[in-house]
Specification:
The complex is a heterodimer.
Chain A lengths: L20 H23 L4 H23 L7 H8 L1 H29 L4
Helix pairs in contact in A: 1-2
Chain B lengths: L13 H9 L11 H30 L7 H4 L2 E3 L2 E3 L2 H25 L3 H31 L13 H32 L2 H4 L13 H26 L1
Antiparallel strand pairs in B: 1-2
Helix pairs in contact in B: 2-6, 2-8, 4-5, 4-8, 5-6, 6-8
Classes of the chains: A mainly alpha, B mainly alpha.
Chain lengths: ~120, ~240
């Protein structure tokens, strides 16, 4: 679990020891607070860009905390971290492709439903 | 915890370390138990499965000219006679985060070879997961009673039902499988399989507390997927 080769690094512990319980409790507490905040986004019925950006902000923070500390990626060697994180770029590309696609689909649907496609 | 010391090989930090690890003509993931590496690869493939579901949902919701049902109202629950938006979903989120935290602590105590603490925490995680599945079953039956079907629903765009059942169903399946394994591993910890070195699953290799970390990776992943479902399906 612990990373070697970086033992001199202050944040990282020497091998053989586990992480202090404090770090887990902190992350745990933060996850509760962030979840509560993202629930508040709905509670106060924020709309539009404010709503979407807040949702994404809290989502990425939570996901990052879980992966970095609960799943120990922060302490793993880069060989593993990069193998795991780079394929996500493919997903990001796919998302952009499909955004373009749904906009086109919506456009054609609206066009033919309301304007009509008759020759 | 696996031994990251490799004879005749110097472990460098950062990207240089990545380059030398990858090109070392040896095992690439230095100091990572094979089971852990395999679990990560599995989770990566699972990420793609869930991404495809969520991207399909994005495309379906974005391309329909019919009004999408307001999740804030669809998933509202009466509490003391007042409809509270997303009440059950919020509770499910907190239950899952709680179980994620107990799992993280179980891994820590496992590596400290604190058998009792580790076992109780894995058991607590399993019970948290079971609670989550129970709440999801309640949510499903409530929506089915209200007439939500994969092909139609009384609230708006027909695609809502199919995406809802597909995405939450697939996630719920993951949670259920996780709960089964959590109970099995709670037994294995309490029975002292990792002290006696009893062999693990489908292998002749000796069992070790690293198995609890591997199980933990799966469980945190389930929580991670819920973070995205919560954001995109329930809040958006």
């Amino acid at each position: 679990m612990d990373n070697t080769g970086q033992i001199n690094d202050k944040d990282k512990k020497p091998e053989g020891s586990t992480h202090k319980i404090g770090i887990y409790l902190w992350i745990w507490g933060l996850l509760f607070v962030l979840s509560f905040f993202s629930y508040l986004v709905d509670w106060y019925q924020f709309q539009g860009m404010l709503r979407w950006s807040l949702i994404l902000f809290f989502m990425f923070l939570k996901a990052g905390l879980i992966m970095a500390f609960f799943m120990h990626l922060f302490w793993e060697r880069y060989a593993l971290v990069n193998v795991l994180l780079w394929p996500m770029t493919a997903i990001a590309c796919f998302i952009f492709l499909m955004v373009a696609e749904f906009e086109y689909t919506l456009f054609t649907r609206v066009f033919y439903f309301f304007v009509g496609g008759g020759a | 915890m696996s031994d990251p010391k490799i004879d005749g090989f110097e472990l460098k930090p950062g990207f240089k370390g990545m380059a030398s690890d990858t090109g070392s003509d040896q095992t690439m993931f230095k100091g990572v138990h094979w089971g852990k590496a395999m679990m990560w690869i599995f989770l990566l493939s699972d990420t793609f499965v869930f991404s495809c579901f969520l991207i399909a949902y994005m495309k379906g919701r974005g391309s329909t000219p019919v009004e999408w049902p307001n999740p804030s109202e669809v998933f509202a629950l009466e509490a003391f006679g007042v409809p509270v938006p997303l009440l059950l979903i919020a509770l499910m989120t907190f239950v899952l985060i709680t179980s994620s935290g107990t799992m993280a602590l179980a891994v820590k105590y496992g590596y400290e070879r604190n058998r009792k603490m580790c076992g109780w925490l894995v058991l607590a995680t399993a019970i948290g997961g079971l609670t989550f599945v129970g709440m999801q079953a309640y949510e499903w039956s409530k929506l089915i009673h209200e007439g939500v079907r994969p092909w139609a629903n009384p609230f708006g765009a027909a695609q809502f039902g199919s995406f809802f059942f597909m995405i939450t169903g697939f996630h719920g399946t993951h949670v259920s499988i996780g709960v089964i394994f959590l109970f099995i591993y709670a037994y294995k910890v309490f029975a002292g399989h990792y002290e006696s070195g009893k062999r693990g699953w489908f292998t002749t290799m000796k069992g070790d507390y690293v198995e609890i970390e591997i199980l933990g990776l799966y469980w945190h992943f389930v929580d991670l997927v819920w973070v995205f479902i919560f954001a995109f399906f329930y809040l958006w």
